Amino acid sequence: MLQESITKLAGVGEKRAQALADLGIVTIENLLSYYPFRYDDIKERNLAEINDQEKVTIKGIVVSPPVVNRFGYKKSRLQFRMMQDRDVFSVSFFNQPYLKDKVVVSEDIAIYGKWDAKRKALTGMKILGAKQEGDFAPIYHVSKAVRQQTLVDLIRKAFARFGDQIEENLPLSLMEKYRLMGRKDAMYAMHFPQDPDQHHQAKRRVVFEEFFLFQMKIQGLKKEEKSEKHGIVISYDVERVKEFTQKLPFKLTGAQKRVTNEICRDFLQPKHMQRLLQGDVGSGKTVVAAIALYAAVTAGFQGALMVPTEILAQQHLGSLQQLFDPLEVHTALLTSSTKSKERQQIIEQLQQGEIDVVVGTHSLIQEGVDFSNLGLVITDEQHRFGVNQRRGLREKGFQPDVLFMTATPIPRTLAITAYGEMDVSIIDEMPAGRIPVETRWIKRGQLSDALKNAQLELQNGRQMYVICPLIEESETLDVQNAVELYEELKNYFAPEFVVGLLHGKMKSEEKEAIMEGFKENEIQVLVSTTVIEVGVDVPNATTLLIMDADRFGLAQLHQLRGRVGRGQEASYCILVANPKNELGKERMKIMTETNNGFIVSQKDLELRGPGEVFGFKQSGLPEFVAADIVADANVLEVAKDEAQNLWQKKDWQLLPEYAGLFSYLKETDKENQFFD
Fold first, then answer.
1. What's the pTM value of the predicted model, to 2 decimals?
2. Which residues, in sequence order, are CB contacts of 373 under 8 Å at separation 6+?
3. Percentage of the chain modeled with pLDDT above 90
4. DSSP of 40-87
5. What homologous superfamily does CATH list for 232-427?
6. Between helices 285-298 and 310-324, what is the axis angle to 10°?
7. How would you classify the pairing of strands 438-442 and 76-84?
């Protein structure tokens, strides 16, 4: 019943249902688990104990009639006087004239607001109802279409009508082991706690539940995909792979050797490989990918490398061709802009096994693309290779091993736990001789000096990136900013240097032409939005100028910084920013103090939280309602261990103790067949 539509609740018609859906509330359970992000302390206080500018609840008697004064469009002030004991003070509500009817002379009233001790006045925020439950008022993320009070009223209605249908979904043994509150009581106390301790206990329960249910799905997936029936053995030619690595134009680092061995060990197992390869910007993940692909080819399998952008696909293909062509390993490129005739030819060659390694975007797993003998799929950066894509390949008759690569350095324990169905390999060592990028933070007023220094680099034959400020959710403004900056810099550097422009609204061919011109040094200064963020490799670029750097997260700034420092010359990253607060200043300082992506990532997690750092939709990291994978990392670890222990029990789904858990997972996770 909790999975029923929100429209089953009285007072929720089509229009309100849409407004709630915009908040992510579609079912009754969504509503009941739409928890507050904070609580206001609304217990009544005496005037004598209140501090200046404190937010408090004051109860008293209305001693003057309410008066509404209007000024300007939709602006008003509701005023009246109140008395507590013998103290009389004034009360004002701004832009809430409709509250006038709730203010009645000689009647008691309780108001939550901000106290001004000097003026002996209360700026009201809300009038509290007579039936206020507890000393804490929940505050939710709401919208213009859904007010706080509307949401509170709906949640109360939902508990009144559906509360008895909230069934326990954790086994009794775990509840007793960790002294967890019952599910129904915890959900109610998350909204309407009687005191801080009750809220603490409710949150403990809800956080554990979220993590445990998530880990049950993850560990189930891991068990299913690691089972021998889903795996393939890639019996690669050890001698040929050794010879290949020895002939590379550089020596592998110890970390690269270690992770290559981990991948090769997986190949020889009859279980399905699911491995996450993490490595900081410039640590050499692509070479490891090349060795893995070559190993698969020596065993008679085909390999596929999926990347987020066409520019990156072309770049990877170029790198692989240099390594593979002398060995007669046949490669191909398949993206959405591949011409139909060429596309058809590539698809036929893949089906016939004439292509060994194909590089491309998500086009690789679309309908109509079939392989002769696919053994390894490597996905780079934003392409989280999800359950459905893996299932799609299996339905085509393939059980490929999967390697997921990311340059977003997630702290190891977090990676192991959040990407629970994957084994984790980390390249934690940089290639020898790589010069760390020098990062400087300057204010906008110092920009002319930075441009003069950049000009000296250009005169020495180097190149430069200029990254435009990012405007939230507005590609049009992004482009506008980029064009304006491009025009300014074109005038500044003319006629000595050529300035190019790259942004997200350009056609693929235009982007490719600009990037090619930059690679060939026909363009010396490239003004760009963040389309150059991931993986683009131009060793001659030594200066990176990021405008309004405080608009970016630390992890993103670090990714951008990785575009320079790829050659043998000293490189510079200039952050142009006038942060408005201490947090912004702290972030700029962190960037100037370390080049270590794992430290940057950890700081970003601490300062901003995982949602903003990773962008859940891109990274595949889970999004939780009450739990926080950083602050509650220890609970996540415990939940993972408990889920692993349970999946090791034979036929746990049939045991009476787990009936509630199994029923809940089956109802809420229909896409995973292991709960059928």
1. 0.62
2. 300, 301, 302, 353
3. 46
4. EE--B--GGGPPTT-EEEEEEEE-S--EEEE-STT-EEEEEEEEETTE
5. P-loop containing nucleotide triphosphate hydrolases (3.40.50.300)
6. 60
7. unpaired
Kindly report the CATH number that applies to the domain delimited by 438-608.
Answer: 3.40.50.300
Nearest to 143 by CA among 24, 317, 263, 51: 24
Please state whether the peptide bond connecting residue 495 to the residue before it is cis, i.e. omega within 30 degrees of 0.
yes
Q: How many Cβ atoms from other residues are within 10 Å of residue 349's Cβ? A: 16
d(CA 141, CA 171): 32
Q: How far apart are CA 81 and CA 106, in angstroms?
A: 11
- Tell me, yes or no, if the two domains 43-131 and 232-427 fold the same way: no
Nearest alpha carbon to residue 573 among 426, 417, 402, 453:
453
What is d(CA 395, CA 398) in angstroms, rounded to the nearest whole number?
7
DSSP annotation of 464 reads: E
The per-residue pLDDT for 132 is 59
Which pLDDT band holds residue 342 (cuts at 50, 70, 90)?
very high
pLDDT digits (tens, 9 = 90+) for 18-58: 999 988 899 999 999 999 988 877 788 899 889 999 989 99
The full 3-state SS of 481-498, as one line of letters, equals HHHHHHHHHHHHHCCCCC
Distance CA 199, CA 182 (A): 13
Q: For the chain, what is the mean pLDDT?
A: 85
Tallying the residues shown for the chain, one arrives at 676
CA-based end-to-end distance of the chain: 19
Residue 212 to residue 204: CA distance in whole angstroms: 12
pLDDT digits 0-9 by tens, 215-269: 888 888 777 655 555 678 999 999 999 999 999 888 899 999 999 999 999 999 9
Which one, of 139, 144, 140, lies nearest residue 19 by Cα? 144
Where do runs of H (alpha helix) occur along 307-422? 310-324, 340-352, 387-395, 412-418
The letter for the amino acid at 103 is V
Tokens of 223: 């068990």
Check if the beta carbon of residue 468 is closer than 8 Å to that of residue 528. yes
Could you tell me which of 527, 571, 524, 577 has the C-alpha nearest to residue 547? 577
Predicted local distance difference test score (pLDDT) of residue 620:
45
Cβ atoms of 422 and 428 within 8 Å: the answer is no
Backbone angles phi, psi at 109, to 5 degrees: -150, 145
Model pLDDT, residue 493:
93
- What pLDDT score was predicted for residue 615? 42
What is the dotted CATH code of the domain comprising 43-131?
Answer: 2.40.50.140
Identity of the amino acid at 333: L
Confidence of residue 412 (pLDDT cuts 50, 70, 90): low
Q: How far apart are CA 550 and CA 552, in angstroms?
A: 5
Encoded amino acid at 224, one letter: E
Where do the DSSP E strands lie in 241-400?
274-279, 302-306, 331-334, 357-360, 374-380
- More confident of the two residues 131 and 97: 97
pLDDT digits (tens, 9 = 90+) for 455-513: 999 999 999 999 987 554 455 565 667 888 899 999 999 899 999 998 877 887 788 88
Where along the chain do its domains lie?
6-38+139-189, 43-131, 232-427, 438-608
